[in-house]
Amino acid sequence: MYLRKSRQDIELENNGAEDTLSRHRRRLLDVAQKMNLTILKIYEEVVSGDTIAGRPQMQQLLRDVEAGKYDAVLCHDIDRLGRGGMKDQGTILDTFKWAGVAIITPDKVWDLSFELDEEGLEFRTLGARFEYRMIRKRMNQGRQQSVQSGLFIGHTPPYGYERIKRQGAKGWILSPIEPEATVVKDIYRWYIGDGCPPIGTSLIVRKLNERGIPSPGQGKDWTPCAVRRILSNQEYCGYICSGVRKVVKTVKDGVVTVSRPRGVPVLYKGLHEPIITEEQSQMAIAKLSKNKSRPGPKNVEMTNPLSGLVYCHFCGRSMIRRTYSNGRPPSIMCIYTSCPCVSSDFSIVEDAILDGLREWLKDFENNFTITQENNVAEIESLKSAITAAYAELQKLDQQKQRIYTLVEQGVYTTDVFTERMQALSEELNKTTVRISDLQNELQSAQTALDHKLQLIPNVKHVLSAYRHCQTAQEKNDLLRAVLDHVEYFKSNRERWGDGSDLKITLFPAFPDKN
Predict the structure, then answer these.
(1) CATH classification number, 2-148, choose in 3.40.50.1980, 3.40.50.1390, 1.10.287.3510, 3.40.1740.10
(2) Which of 211, 392, 415, 445 has its CA 20 to 30 A from that of 87?
């Protein structure tokens, strides 16, 4: 016996309906009793998956059917076996057909060895597939309409809110709850400096944990990640976010893979009461996008001019400045003992970074004329290529119109028309993609030179002012103006001389396009 809930069943149960599996099991047991059948095993699917891959009980059932364990399988209706894609439906029907296993429902016994039953079952599964798609379409439309109306359609509300049923209307809305809502206000206030000095996520975590405030979810200690999720969630300022984690399906070697990559959310004005203002939310998001995490507490004076800038080549983690009590000079190191990275004297790395900036500036100024000429030539070449591609696209559009005219005049048969149209469609797609790629290259070429030109005066200022800075914070601010990060490589423990394989790679910080 195979039992499975549908999405519609789950919604009905949430509204007080009887458990679907219990009801179907009771009915099928009555059928088995009347037909004097022996039930060897009951498969209960508690998940509602679109594919066989998402339904472990169905996978096990098909394996057992292939092994010849059963003469028949009972199910409440054909669509309970599967109404997903045609590939999955074909897999299910073929498995039952070639194993010689019948499908028993309360109204009919389907024997796939008979042609009429096989054809009838194919029509039933096709209808079930159509019904399934219509149900999904209506559900998605309903969900989208609910979001656009400002309703909350999720099951787990954001921290600081509870999910409540609307009075006299359908749907759910968010409602602030205390003391969590006050915690959210404090997090924003501390982070953006609203009435107090601004602090970062790490210090916010420390304050929350010191006060014994339970974190979202399990109520354990707060983490910077949890704080950043709150600061980036625009539902707190009165919006409903949609499309943050869209389902993306890809096929490779016949296997469908489902992923939910993070995307840009679509915002709709919510019906719930905001906890913070929209201005506070925008300030927090802007600060999050610019403020990279930096090791070490911020409530003490910075001692590492390279703080948050140097990253390990092997593990990608941020490296630290280590001091010694025996008079040995400080070093820069990766704190993870499992990493093969070897430390170096801090002064050597600092000098290498400044030398790298100095060398870059020298090479760029020496080759400025050549670089500028090359960039201009490259830009003009890309512009010419884009113009030629647009001309080709226009020519292909004209060919498409001629194909339609020829088929209307009877010159082309249907087969010839289809063949020509498919070939032309491929050319149109290739040309469109080529235009897009060329435009991206043009934009990159135009902005690259502008960024370098803006970077030149900044690098000169860093080189002239760095050694005159009085504090590590001043030096760090100077380097951050011209460097996005620095990659550190060293695998040889030779500290001095030719045996050292220290390599420093600089990644410039290009100014914002705006």
Answers:
(1) 3.40.50.1390
(2) 415
